[in-house]
Amino acid sequence: MSSPALSGDFDPALLRTFVAVCRHGSLSRAADQAGRAQSALSTQIRRLEEQVGKRLLHRTGRGMAPTTEGELLLSYANRILALGEAAAARLRERAVAGSVRIGLSEDVAVAALPAALGRLRRACPQLHLEVVVDDGERLAARWQEGMLDVAVGVCAAFVDEPVQTWAVDLHWVCAIDEAPDPDAPLDVIVYAEPCSWRRLAFDTLTAAGRDFRVTLTSHNVGATIAAVENGLGVALLSSECLRPDTMRIISLGPDSPPSLRAQFGMYASKRLNDSGRAAVSLLRESLQNWGAPQPSRPIGAGTSHLPEALPAVGLAG
Predict the structure, then answer these.
(1) How high is the pLDDT of residue 214?
(2) How far from 68 is each of 58, 75, 77, 154, 208, CA to CA, in Å?
(3) pTM for the full model?
């Protein structure tokens, strides 16, 4: 073979092919794995050998193996490729930097959304998240005023078109040891105005012919859950807020639907930079199994399933 004609530069594609052949011990297996023709890989190996002026591979009884010079190059090739991948990862990390303002509806910032934000934070450690949690109407007002880059909230509160929608099941629940009297006014726990769930609750109770009285009003979903668990009344809660050891689902009557559905949407500013678009993409991916994705904008096949320990109990006499 001719004397070395090193240019000082190694083509990563040639090194990657060389490493693959060494790892598989065969040109044909490396070609199959890469989905390429064996002749193409053979040409690349030949070009690399011409570049270094050394034979890098030789045949053995079990296939192809690196020569002494090939073993030396293999160690460097692995390091060169690893450094290239590390550099690309760091550059991507730097690209997803800056700051993104995210708004979450208070009535859904319980389980799925914090987990999605945690995944976003781990995937983009250089990205500064400014997260605000508020009730649906005030969140929509913040969005309308341009104070947020991304928002996730109940669609009824927003006037813009969402980039993604989900249908989330809502259920009437009471404390697990409570048995509401069907002949007495129903004690109800609701969110404070303005709140679309509050209006939905009142409309549903009226349609079911149920007398009711409000016993507790709160903006905070944690306070609402605690009030239900302690027997202060019934409330309309999403599936992810249900606690099977302390709550049970109830029915307003034989003609009332077993559950209601609220539509939530993700809203993204049209002025998003690369960081904002990366945040939206990761959040959408993380929320694939939250609620039931709407057919018009499908992102996954997940639906909300009720715990078997939450039997529905009728309230009708």
Answers:
(1) 94
(2) 10, 11, 14, 66, 84
(3) 0.56
